[in-house]
Specification:
With about 80 residues, the chain is an all-alpha fold. About 75% of the residues lie in helices and about 0% in strands. It contains four helices and no strands. The longest helix is centred in the middle third of the chain and has 20 residues, at about 35-55. It is flat, with a radius of gyration of 13 Å.
Length: about 80
């Protein structure tokens, strides 16, 4: 189960790079190692993050980290805790 959660986060990260035009969607899917349906979920989450980052005022990297951290915390909640205690 933990491995799939990490793959999901990898899919979101790779998909973010696809949304910003640095790699293709196919490359992002390959990097994630996710099945089609699971990859589409990750791709959609990356789409939301990308939109929030690109429309944000100020430092884009900070906004990306803020939104990606929320995804990491959501995964960690499933494990019953936080990544950093």
């Amino acid at each position: 189960m933990a491995k799939e959660k990490v793959k999901h986060l990898s899919g979101i990260l790779a998909s973010f790079f696809a949304h910003t035009g640095h790699i293709s969607k196919e490359d992002a899917k390959e990097l994630s190692g996710l099945k089609d349906h699971e990859f589409e979920k990750a791709y959609e989450k990356a789409s939301c993050i990308s939109e929030k980052v690109m429309t944000a005022e100020g430092e884009k990297l900070e906004k990306f980290l803020e939104h990606f951290a929320k995804e990491i915390e959501a995964v960690m909640d499933n494990f019953g805790g936080k990544l950093f205690k």
